[in-house]
Amino acid sequence: MSTRRAFVLKGGAALGAGVAATVAGAGMATGAAGHAATKGGASRPPDAATAGGSREQDPGSSSIEDREALRRLQLTFAALLEDERYEAAAALFDEHAHLQLSGASARGRAAISHLFASSYRLQEAPVIHRAYRHRADDVRIGEDRLRATATFHVDADLCTPLQDDCTIARMARLQGNVADRRWETGRLEAEYVKTGGEWKIASLTYVPA
Amino acid sequence: MSARNYRPLQMHRIAYTDLTESQVAQALRPTANGPSSRSPLSNALAGKRLEIVTDGGGPRLAYHFRTGRELELSENGGKPIKAGYGALESRDLVLVSHMIPGTQRGYKIVVDRRTRLATVFEVSFSGYAKQEIAAAAAAKREPQFKNGHRNREAQRQIWFGYVADGGAAPTARHTYTNRLEGKGIYWRQDNDIEILEFYLSVIYSNFIELTRFGGEMTVCAPSDYVMIDDHQFIYSRIECEFSGTFTLQVVDLFDMTQKGVRLGLTDQDALEYYMYTGNGELTGQIATFEVFGNNGETRTGPRRVYRPLETFDVMTDEEVKDQVLNHAHAFGDGKGSGAAGMGGYKSEQITHFAGKKLTVRTDNGPTIDYDFTGGNKLEWRYGGDSHWREAWYEMYEPDDQLYFFAHLLDAEFPRSCAMVALDMKNGLATIVKGTTGTPFRNNETHPSYYFGVFHMDGGPTPPTYVRHGWTDELVGECVTWNYQRGNPGLTSMHFYATPSTYSWIIFQPDGSGGMQWSSPGWYSKLRDGVYLMAWVEEACNGTLGVICFNKRIMHDAGFGFHVGRNGLSLSVIGARARHAGKFEIKKYIGLNT
User: Which residues does chain B have within 8 Å of residue A169's beta carbon, measured at their own beta carbons?
Assistant: First the structure.
């Protein structure tokens, strides 16, 4: 694991723990996370199977727990994206979800899964989101606690794939090379739905700053 | 230089037998007795017991070396087996090689008697198909066996560990390394085999078989580099896509010696299993491109192997004929070739020949009359022919008043293009005619060179005897080529290995050398420091690339000629170069230095 990658995973995972403390202390409906890099120390986000909370709705659970679950869900998505575990990433979306990432878009979980399997896996998307470094967030829980929205301010690791078909481009792609790679500041606008006690991503759109 | 035995077919043209598992097993049967060796084998381990513990789920190997040629081995506490073996020493290192009788696998072990560290190569055969099936299942595709099941291809697993002696286990390990990267060595083995090896990547190497194949071509193989210390290394390769032969050697850079083992089946399916010693001469050390401080190689995932024979199409006559006649495009059919692919740094297009006429007259080839009717359109006809044809062209100026342009020739099968260099300072001209088809594949191309002159009103009076000509001035040079903007963009390194071949290396994201491949290459000189270099990606995608390389400005102008399922294309190449270094190898390949 590269140093940068380890940093992102550790930082990303730390966000959940740090945010929980911040939000609990503030006692507010919305919370802002500190910089992930300053939190440090926690283990990586949970697997897709447990992300977002698989337990049934507890009538007594607080909106703080919901916000924390949503942050963990978003961190899990980021970790799976970085690990190129695209099928697991697609499983985090609602059946009718919408995804819009820098020109790559899909509607419905099946289409999202296909987008990851083809455009991302085969490096055919115009731009590939490879990783996120979360900076701050604003999670808003609906009154019915079955829907939520959030804004995640991120630094996004964006790759422009090599599109050419010449031999050296093919060889370069096999090695994971890209035409261009850069960090960009932006935000992820997300919507969530809770069905069967489990939060799913209903919509995710990346907006450059 | 020793006499060279040229071969009718180079490795990439040999149809290696697709042996069955049982055929491979039969061929390997003699390996039970251990390897042969021209040099005396070592008795250093005779009578000794050695228990090797490896990390990461690797085997635990308990050896009893009964003699200098016979051992008993218990794997992971299992029942001991007997096998013949061979050993060679390199200072404190002992290289041991043996197979496990009745199987298609065995071990090559390097033990450091001083540090107790050990590296274990578990080598096996008939394993490619299983890997391909698993990879296909993971990628949800059908497994591909275009070129057979490759049972003859050696597979290897590498384990790092130590010799257990009842005391505390050492914490250090041998490691993968990039410390051999950029180095070239000429080796002469005890069996009179001469070979030039080039370690230009951390996962590949290329080599020129001077004895076995006459030194015409360089070929590439996935390779492993393990660091023992600052001057001792383990280098191994497997000749994937070819014979599948496994080679491993301990290299000592202090005294420039090697101790090695070669295991595989020849193109005649005969077993080669021998150990060897050799003496080397350093041929050079070129630049490497990792950031400072990156002194190792971090491996993740399975070994990467470039398999052009497996992945590129072989089209039928009719398929190629349809493409070259009905789907031929030059430079976007006048819309411009764009800056994609290998043309990201193309220079300014030259259009001021519009309105000019000239005749290129080659010595032993075509005479072509040109009428440049526009900045990207010309008319041409063969000398003596009254029929003018229209064609799209693009022209560049790679050196002062030296022009290079290209266009398609007649719409016939096979189909050709002309790439023409004109020197306005002396009237010399060279045509590289690219044509589709080779005796091996119709969707490959091949070049024909024609040296000559041109005549143009207001142009120079050409010489009578002087011509552009073949050159070996680039032999040994390594040049990086950056084809596109962006970081890292599309970048490779050319290694001009002999006057008839070259190799290219694709950099990995961390700047280290990655996958490599090679092809025939042709080199001619236009001016001091300005060359025409051509290559055909044979047994690959078949493209003919021709670049006019100006070493003074470290830039090129060139063209690519390709036929495939998307048609026939003539496109532009334009890239920026850096000099990476040079190997002094001419004397080993019979060239004057």
Answer: 341, 490
Question: Would you give the DSSP letter of residue B102?
Answer: T
Kindly report the nearest CA distance between residue A28 and chain B, in angstroms.
Answer: 44
Which residues in B182-195 are b (16+ Cβ under 10 Å) and which e? Answer: bbbbbbbbbbebbb
Amino acid type, A86: Y
Q: Is A175 on the interface with B (CB under 8 A)?
A: yes
Which of A171, A175, A179 is opposite residue B486, by nearest beta carbon? A179
Q: What is the pTM of this model?
A: 0.86
Nearest CA in chain B to A167: B541
One DSSP character per residue, B194-222 reads EEEEEE-SSSEEEEEETTTSTT--EEEEE
Helices and strands in chain B: count of H runs, count of E runs: 4, 38
CA distance B560 to chain A (A): 10
- CB contacts of B340 in chain A (<8 Å) are 163-164
Beta bridge partners of B161: B54, B118
Query: Which residue in B289, B38, B82, B35 sits closest to B178, CA to CA?
Result: B289
Whether the CB of A162 is below 8 Å from some CB of chain B: the reply is yes
Which tokens in the block code for residue B396? Answer: 């560049």
Q: What is the pLDDT of residues A180-192, one digit of tens each?
A: 889 999 999 999 9
Residue written as token pair 């990303």 = A12
**ipTM reported for the complex, 2 dp:** 0.84
Structure token digits, residue A36: 């992930």
Supply B184's token pair. Answer: 């070239």
* Distance of alpha carbon B336 from alpha carbon B376, whole angstroms: 8
* Amino acid identity at A191: E
Q: Do the beta carbons of residue B512 and residue B529 sit within 8 Å?
A: no
Contacts of B540 in chain A (CB under 8 A): 167
pLDDT digits (tens, 9 = 90+) for B339-381: 677 888 999 999 999 999 999 999 999 999 999 999 999 999 9
Any B CB within 8 A of A179 CB: yes
Contact residues, chain B, for A114 at CB < 8 Å: none
Q: Do A167 and B308 touch (CB under 8 A)?
A: yes
First to last CA, chain B: 13
**Roughly what angle, to the nearest 10 degrees, separates helices A63-82 and A3-26?**
170
Of A164, A171, A181, the CB nearest to B340: A164
Q: Which of A55, A124, A52, A100 is nearest to A204 (CA)?
A: A100
As a whole number of angstroms, the distance between CA B276 and CA B41 comes to 9
> Which residue type does B322 have?
D
Assign residue A109 a region (left: φ > 0; alpha: ψ between -120 and 50; beta: otherwise): alpha
Q: In one letter, which amino acid is B473?
A: E
Tens digits of per-residue pLDDT, B557-592?
999 999 999 999 999 999 999 999 999 999 999 888
Closest CA relative to residue B124, chosen from B101, B96, B157? B157
**Per the CB < 8 Å rule, is B509 touching A177?**
yes
Q: Does A168 touch chain B (CB under 8 A)?
A: yes
CB contact at 8 A, B238 and B123: no
